[in-house]
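User: Structure please.
Assistant: Input sequence and predicted structure:
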Amino acid sequence: MSQSLAKILVHIVFSTKNRAPVIDSNIRPQLYAAMAGIVNDHDSHALRVGGTADHVHLAVDLGRTIQLAELVKILKRSSNRWLRAKSGRFENFHWQAGYGAFSIARSQLDQLIHYIDQQEEHHRVRTFKEEYLDLLAKYKLEPDERYLWE
């Protein structure tokens, strides 16, 4: 084959450091748009970005020329800088060190987008910790909890 093609859909999740609820509802739409732009600028496509005060979810069509870990690193670094430039109250803002990334079948994409859109509603009855542990269990990942929460 002379052409390289890829369709890699990924659900990416990460929280603020120590799950601090600092991303208020006024800044979220702007932050999510900035994060989508960062992803789109790196050979990938942000299909949806959402979350709550303490974490974000992204549905991403990962480009064929960038590694997932590199994209997340760039995304966190750049969105961190964006937040700090936006307001002095974010001068000490940090994302958690790690992240979760889960493969998504094309047939699951609409469901994932709906799930991301409903984050505020979803988190009226469950915490990010509960949600994240459920995701890990769904994908049969068994993390060492000593290093899971910071």
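The chain has a mean pLDDT of 93.
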